User: What shape does this take?
Amino acid sequence: MPKVNASGVTINYERQGSGEPLVLIPYLAADNACYAFQVADYAKHFTCFSLDLRGTGASDNPDGVYCTELFADDVAAFMQVVGITRAHVAGLSLGAAIAMWLGVKRPERVLSLSLHGGWTKSDPFLKTVVESWQVMATALSSVPETTIRGIFPWCFTPELYAAKPEYIQSLADFVRSRPAQPVSAFLQHSNAVAAHDIDGIDRITAPTLITCGRRDALTSTRFAEPMKAQIRNAELLVFENCSHAPLYENVEAFNEQTLRFLQRQSGAGVA
Assistant: This one.
């Protein structure tokens, strides 16, 4: 996969498909492969750029304090280096937080925003959950095992575990097959999640899709409606019977409905 130097950080990415550019920003503890179930459909209509954020996958892991705004600056620098003038931007959870910053700081770069499981400011509940993951990662000395044992239960409903244990196992195997994020980098990324606090989302002008799972206790259900009210050109899509990760819990519906939004925005501009 290609790599570029963006603002002094080597960013690893994968490019697939053709059409207007679609930048896919990964979530906490994940690398560029986290949208594998979506890219096959998206790439039929868009040129998909799937990134490794700093501290994940094959991108650089520099020292320093990470924050969601810094990640957004990295993504903007990446777009500049690879020649993307404007793009559709999508992200789940941490990826959604980063995408929001792009919408606020670099509106000229954004054709549309897809914010999945997003939130505007970490509250005491979210911080407590993130701290528990940090304790587990430190104790296990393994980010993949923390993801499977500590993060998965917040992402999927109990019914999915009961009905499709083999599917959960396949997702666990997939996580274990990817390059393991260093614990030190996970702590920096999760600190960025806990510290996330973005003002000014009412300045976002790009057409915006906000999605969440009805059963999501982690972030999205209590943030989705206020976000929609603040973003002038936003629509809200709720996936019933899903938790924090509808993109895995109901792949067909997630792909169909999010792609429909992206296609409606296609033609607004080209890179």
Summary: The first strand starts at residue 3 and ends at 6. Residues 158 and 243 are 9 Å apart (CA to CA). Residues 3-120+197-265 form a domain with the Rossmann fold fold (CATH 3.40.50.1820).
